[in-house]
UniProtKB/TrEMBL annotation:
Keyword Signal: yes
Cell compartment(s), UniProt: Secreted
Protein family membership: Belongs to the DIPK family.
Name used for this protein in its record: Divergent protein kinase domain 2A-like
Record field: transmembrane: 21-41
Superkingdom classification of source: Eukaryota
Length: 405
């Protein structure tokens, strides 16, 4: 009997099909396994966590930002829970944790990196005559350290602030002091710790949201952390939003910059020192809030030696360094130039710079795109007219687009 051809070929076909089936099953299983592992890792770092006294540095007080008793109790009782961050996240690097306090979204901030805090603690110990490599009780040794050995509170503030006008010093001391007799020893140490680690905790209290400042609500300090309002997403996460949305945000950013620099609230002028997109937040209404105040410079318009003469702050940054922002604190304190916030906003957030896309990228239509790009570059350089006039033209173009859309 003649052999059937199919008898020979059928096993080969089935063998190939089996290989394909096994490969397919393996790929599906690998995908599910990878997805499951990723979700497990994500869950691990997103599970609500109750902070301990050690984690918030409560035992290191009074070498801390303060002790708000009710806030500390809420943290330790678990009323405030946070989502811990993976070591690869930007929030981990910046010492920021998002959490909940009853029905409120909050942010818990350390205000300094792990290495900065460790170096600060070593300095306390060594200045108190202790060997930093051995066990050092900060709570007791801080009283004989450099923090407590400042000759006076005013000198401490003069050394720690860029602009040191008498009215500003009195406002800070008045905010920190709970008694008419002046600062207690603990209050002085809280203030000194903030000056050495991060002045944000000072500014949040001295210039609170309730007085009209575009900052998050400050709920208090407990040990080495502070708790503030979670206002919403930061600008860096919104750079892919549709053009009309970004245009409206840009308009609100311009209003914020003008408000801070106007001196309209008790003649205080606040200048932006680190205008990165991630340092601004946007709430559900589209209002813009400054999230990071570490590098804010505070000036007193009543004490400025120069009159409002429209002098332009120079841009001395090289074109190949998009994150550069150069300015003279002395010039800003004395009012020699007043348009710094507009320069900072254009340079740091709005304009396309080499290697970085600005918030106003990809404007609709070639004509508008070319026009806006030129205006933004003029705002950065300050060479083609006053920045106030240039910014007014930018705002008008944005308003026209929002109205049309």
């Amino acid at each position: 009997m003649r052999p059937n051809f199919l008898q020979f070929i059928r096993p080969l076909l089935f063998k190939r099909q089996r290989k394909k089936l096994v490969l397919f099953i393996f790929l599906v299983a690998a995908f599910i396994f990878r997805l499951t592992c990723w979700k497990a890792v994500e869950w691990l770092f997103q599970v609500p966590h109750i902070l301990t006294a050690d984690e918030i540095g409560l035992s290191k007080c009074p070498a801390c930002f303060g002790v708000n008793t009710s806030l500390c109790q809420s943290i330790l009782d678990g009323e405030i829970t946070v989502k811990t961050n993976g070591f690869w996240t930007n929030e981990y690097t910046k010492g920021v944790m998002y959490g909940r306090w009853k029905n409120m979204e909050v942010v818990v901030k350390y205000l300094a990196s792990t290495s900065e805090i460790a170096e600060f603690d070593r300095h306390i110990c060594t200045s108190a005559g202790m060997n930093s490599k051995l066990s050092c009780d900060l709570k007791s040794n801080v009283w004989s350290s450099f923090l407590a050995n400042e000759t006076s509170v005013k000198k401490m503030l003069y050394d720690g602030m860029d602009c040191t006008f008498h009215r500003l010093l009195q406002k800070i001391i008045g905010t920190y002091s709970k008694s008419e007799k002046g600062l207690t020893g603990e209050e002085k140490l809280y203030l000194s710790t903030a000056l050495h680690l991060n002045q944000e905790v000072i500014l949040l209290q001295v210039f609170p949201k309730k007085d009209g400042w575009p900052f998050p609500t400050f709920y208090g300090a407990c040990g080495r952390v502070i708790v503030v309002e979670n206002v919403g997403k930061n600008l860096k996460s919104l750079d892919k939003k549709p053009w009309p949305v970004r245009a409206k945000i840009a308009l609100n950013l311009i209003k914020l910059a003008l408000k801070l620099g106007s001196g309209e609230v008790e003649d205080w002028v606040l200048y932006l020192g680190d205008p990165l997109a991630e340092n601004f937040g946007v709430n559900e209404k589209g209002d813009v809030v400054l999230l990071d105040m570490e590098h804010i410079l505070v000036a007193d318009r009543r004490q400025m030696t120069k009159k409002m003469n429209g002098a332009t702050c120079p841009d001395n940054c090289p074109s190949n360094k998009p994150e550069c922002l150069q300015y003279s604190p002395s010039d800003l304190c004395n009012g020699i130039c007043r348009d710094h916030n507009l320069y900072a906003l254009c340079q740091g957030v709005l304009a396309d710079m080499k290697g970085r896309q600005g918030l106003l990228h990809s404007a609709p239509g070639k004509k508008l795109r070319v026009k806006l790009n030129q205006l933004l570059q003029d705002c950065v350089s300050g060479e083609n007219g006053r920045r106030e006039d240039v910014m007014s033209k930018i705002a008008k173009n944005l308003e026209n687009q929002i109205f049309v859309n």
